[in-house]
Specification:
This protein is mainly α. It has three helices and two strands. The chain has a two-stranded antiparallel ribbon with strand order 1-2. Helix 1 crosses helix 3. The longest helix has 21 residues.
């Protein structure tokens, strides 16, 4: 699924879904490929599914390991915010609290290969 920001069309100028931003100006948000969404479990299998999906999707977001310093800084900032947001959403005592960090570890190990098993994690 992709989110796209676009200027409002002439017909949408007074539409209630229009977003007003002093930085971006007036715009609307479109959701693309919503039909490609799949059920994802909140467990190790879901982490593997999310890891594979991350690398299968178009490269419109930060990825780790870039030679470009700015891109790597963007990944590092994304990673920090992703973990912070995940902690705010998941109870720290929940059995799933470790999953966001595991997903980040998987992504940082690189894309899945046909002959490669998902990253393994220690239980320590």
């Amino acid at each position: 699924m992709e989110f796209v920001l676009a200027p409002p069309s002439g017909n949408n100028a007074a539409h209630s879904d229009m977003i007003k931003s002093p930085i971006l100006g007036d715009h609307v948000m479109w959701i693309l490929d919503f039909d490609l969404c799949k059920h994802m479990t909140l467990d190790e299998e879901g982490v593997e599914q999310a890891w594979k999906a991350f690398y299968k999707n178009d490269h419109f977001y930060p990825r780790p390991g870039s030679d470009n310093v700015t891109d790597q800084k963007l990944w590092n900032e994304f990673k920090i915010r992703f973990i912070e947001a995940s902690q705010a959403i998941l109870d720290r005592e929940s059995p799933q609290a470790h999953l966001p960090a595991r997903w980040v570890e998987s992504v940082e190990q690189g894309p899945p290969k046909l002959d490669r098993d998902p990253p393994s994690y220690s239980t320590n």
